[in-house]
Amino acid sequence: MSTSQTPLVEVRNLVKHFGSVIALNGVSMSVNHNEVLCLLGDNGAGKSTLINTLAGVHKPTSGDFLVDGQPRVFSGPRDALDAGIATVYQDLAMIPLMSVTRNFFMGREPLIGFGPFKRMNMDEADNVTRDEMHKIGIDVRDPQQAVGTLSGGERQCVAIARAVYFGAKVLILDEPTSALGVAQTSMVLKYINQVRAKGLGVIFITHNVRHAYAVGNRFTVLNRGKTLGTYAKNEIGIDELQNLMAGGKELQSLSEELGGTI
Amino acid sequence: MTLANEQNGSVARSDERLKKVSTLTAILRRPELGAVAGLVLVTIFFLLTANPAMFTLAGVMNFMAPAAQLGILAIGAALLMIGGEFDLSIGSMVAFAGLVFGTALVVWQVPLSVAILVAIAFAVFIGITNAQLTMRTGLPSFIVTLAFLFILRGLTLVGLKWASGGATQLRGMKEAVAGSPLAPLFSGDAFPGLFTWLAQAGIIDTFPNGSPRVSGIPVEILWFIAIALLATWILLRTRFGNWIFASGGDPRAARKSGVPVARVKTTLFVVTALCATLVAILTVLDAGSTDARRGFQKEFEAIIAAVIGGCLLTGGYGSAIGAFFGSIVFGMVLIGLTYTSIDQDWYLVFLGGMLLTAVVFNNVIRKRVTGER
């Protein structure tokens, strides 16, 4: 990626304390247009705190937070959304009993009519949902079918498509592939690539190096609340990345014990 | 669902495939299916066993009147259940609203319009109280409103004794509203002219003197139908309806998506209290009196009617028109048994049986149709 352009989102030396717990202790990262930045780190590395800060849920204790080069302070998730930063959480914020359409437009229903006769424009909502699903390659035969009938990968894609449709410029994906099988994972990864190709910046949080390497352009590794480093894809191999993420030696020796399978 | 292997070409075919959603699936997906099926079964049962008088116009009005009184409550309860909460205080609320309304009319001697406004104000207050207590404490609404089941019933008893000077009954409402232009909206029969005309034209049964056997449609039935239609429209076609489903389906997900869950639930609690108040006004004006046992156990009947109508106990799924049909099933059985030689107390057995069947049926259907895994 060119370094001359202004990053969509950039944080420098971000620190976040929860009482006496230091969750983030100087994290720096940035994501550009047309780029998938993978945020790697083992459990407890601070990934969740970082995305919650980016999404406006937490306020940083100190450090710089720039959106399009401008320093910003979000007072809530709504602010982050308005700034074009959309987060797709692990639980997807989808309701299985509700139809695909109703989920897609939840909280942002298109309206027609006047005064007391103002109603939800179901036809338009159905059409938009069907079109958006087609773009991803999910064949929703009937957008009125319940989300519960979709597979895990499809639900993930619907959640991403919803964020993109409502104008996200930066998409934060919180472990989108962690609960998915192989076919489902490749479907989601393919879609992440598609979203990037549209010019969006994607922050892809995962602890699976293979998934990260498949779609990532750059990799930021977190460990114990700090950035260990940021690497472009051509600077680092998949094994090095794996070791870096796990904090080196321990995993390597464990890996040898297990015959090199992790 | 097919995935990546069908990606190409699916766009072009999609519209044809859309029409192929099997009619059976589409019907099974309707939450009110159970209630309609129940209604058909009960109708067949009474067609076979009951005196044919049950299905004359007069007979239909006979069972629709109690169905309407229950149904207005059940529709409110259904909306609230879809929104993910219970209100066990609606039965007591009917009695309490009756007390407030009756006291305003008879003791304070205010006009009907003012008495209605006073009753509405109390309903809004109690609805908000229920909602705030539920949401602020994080307790299940089941417990909070169970407390109000007793509190409101007790207040009604105390209030009635105070208002009537020692009795648990308050009389004289009919006289108090006589001549009020609003009274026909809440009492008596609608469209008497039409029914007289129908009788003269020989379309409906008449008494020997030529006046119609049914002088009009009882107003509560019209309220019942209007509320069922309005609630269904709101639920299925408005933004607020979408918010109701979302709030009940998963409040956290709804909140993250920008749905004002607390506001939705508060509104629904107020709506149920208002439904109870409407029933109170209708029944008080109909009987001309109110007493402490008004609405006794109606909360359970209303919830059962809502469940028969397809509402899940866990929220997020259900139908207002289903509660409408569920209530008619109730009215038919309650009144229908008097047209048969069957002991009327079987009604209670039926109540429990119907509830069990409906809950089991709802669970099976939900799993099949929504593909819950």
TrEMBL record, chain A:
Top-rank taxon: Bacteria
UniProtKB keywords: ATP-binding, Nucleotide-binding
Alphabetized GO MF terms: ATP binding; ATP hydrolysis activity
UniProt cross-references to InterPro entries, sorted A to Z: AAA+_ATPase, ABC_carbohydrate_import_ATPase, ABC_transporter-like_ATP-bd, ABC_transporter-like_CS, P-loop_NTPase
PANTHER family: CARBOHYDRATE TRANSPORT ATP-BINDING PROTEIN MG119-RELATED (PTHR43790), SUGAR ABC TRANSPORTER ATP-BINDING PROTEIN (PTHR43790:SF8)
Family: Belongs to the ABC transporter superfamily.
Record-given protein name: ATP-binding cassette domain-containing protein
Upper classification of the organism: Bacteria, Pseudomonadati, Pseudomonadota, Alphaproteobacteria, Hyphomicrobiales
TrEMBL record, chain B:
Superkingdom of source: Bacteria
GO molecular function annotations of the record: transmembrane transporter activity
Cellular compartment(s): Cell membrane
Keyword entries, A-Z: Cell inner membrane, Cell membrane, Membrane, Sugar transport, Transmembrane, Transmembrane helix, Transport
Topological category with respect to the lipid bilayer: Multi-pass membrane protein
Coiled-coil region list: none
InterPro entries: ABC_transp_permease
Pfam families: BPD_transp_2
CDD domains, A to Z: TM_PBP1_transp_AraH_like
Record field: transmembrane: 33-51, 63-82, 114-133, 139-163, 221-246, 266-285, 306-334, 346-365
A cellular component term, taken from the record's GO annotations: plasma membrane
PANTHER family in the record: ABC TRANSPORTER PERMEASE PROTEIN YPHD-RELATED-RELATED (PTHR32196), XYLOSE TRANSPORT SYSTEM PERMEASE PROTEIN XYLH (PTHR32196:SF32)
Main function: Part of the binding-protein-dependent transport system for D-xylose. Probably responsible for the translocation of the substrate across the membrane.
Protein name: Xylose transport system permease protein XylH
